[in-house]
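pinging the channel bc i need a second pair of eyes. not urgent but kinda urgent?? the chain im working w is below, pasted from the shared doc
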Amino acid sequence: MSRASRHVPRHSALARSASLGWLVAVAAAWIAASGGCSKGAEPPPADAPDADADAGPAGWAPGKILAPIAEGPRGLRNLRGNIHAHSVHSHDACDGQPRDDAGALNTVCLDDFRKALCTSRHDFVMLTDHPTLFADTEFPEALLYRAERGDRLITRGGAPVANWAGCEGGRRPVLLLAGTEGGTMPVGLEGHVSPDRAERGRVYGDKTAEAVLAQKAKGAVSLLQHTENWTADQLATLPIDGFEMYNVHANLMRNPDIAIEMIFRLGGGRDDLPHPDLFILPIVREDPRYLDTWGSVLARGVRRVTVMGSDCHRNTFPALLSDGERIDSYRRMMGWFSNHLLIRPAADGSYTDVELKEALRSGRLWGAYEYLGYPVGFDFHALEAGTIREMGDEATLAKGAVELVATMPSLAELDPTVPAPRLTLRLLRAREGGWDTVKDATESMRVKVDAPGAYRVEVRLVPRHLQRYLGRDAEKLANEERVWIYSNPLYVRP
């Protein structure tokens, strides 16, 4: 065991829950018994081609990564990416071995991460490495900068603040931002909060308003991780920008019995499991702790952005699935779902970390569970006396009712030979302890509201189009409604 892995702080993903630790131990035992610096800040232009290395049969299928759909509504650009990701600069990543005893990085794990950046076709990834190693890692290494891979740094005031991570085969580079998950989860740090490493660790491990403001002073968007561990009072009163609407590890901890049953089936050589990239489907469940707390916070009149957290570490499920890839590979976890940021690019279509963080702070974000399929055309905005208000904005009732407009998306490249999924669009209003449904529809909606509050929409999906990929329980799983898209809210004021 390496020096880096001997100490497991309380914020470790594997130390958060005895149930998850037991699950990992059971999985490992069963599987073993049965049988593995340039300055260039400019991104590619908006219309730059993206090599289709995943070309294959027409139509989307599990595991097929489609090219990004960059065009957003009203001149906005839709950027798809991952928030809350752990690299070799987290002590508990890479099966607890991110570095060896000599301090050398785990290059196999780093290569897995770098490859996933490109094959997932994300536009951005916001790193959240734990302070144990992150506080000791200087910029630009904290940005995983590798000149030999074609990376290009974004600099500000002569210092590196973000990294265009290069991809092979003509793929677009991915914008990497640094961050940490300790006491809180600041993303998009433009440098460390202090030149003193001990002071960094203290600030990154702290949960106070003082620490949040120190991180914001270094350019960070201040988020809180693992919403289940925070009260509505904390989320409403700390000077943060937002928190998580969903987290994979929290989901696993809440439903360990399903994961254990599937792993035993895998270890027993069963061939009736879902497609490898749908392994997560039976496990994903909405978490009332997240949704109810989210509603309570917004019902108190505060504005908070919410994000989907993959919390990928490559440290939980080393077992190989039928495609020869481990269950929790970076590629697989990064592809399960995405955060969609609606940015305002420059006139030439370019953008940097600045535009990403402005959109994140403003709440112009929706999350999609893309293991179910890729959404096209989703939109949610408000009309206030003819003026458009985007997600995250405020509208006022001073001039009469506000009209909320939600567009039902379609699935990209849906195979016309399979049953179509059933889609439902739902408009909700925040209340203390949860959400009230304002309207359900099977098509796009325009709803005039005359009551103040925080309103969001979600798209729900019955995945009949996936039935042939779902193994033994296909009929049951293909007919269970599940969430596909969560929007961020619009705020209607008196």
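so The longest strand covers residues 422-431. and Residues 1-19, 28-56 have pLDDT under 50 and may be disordered. — does that match what u expected or am i reading it wrong
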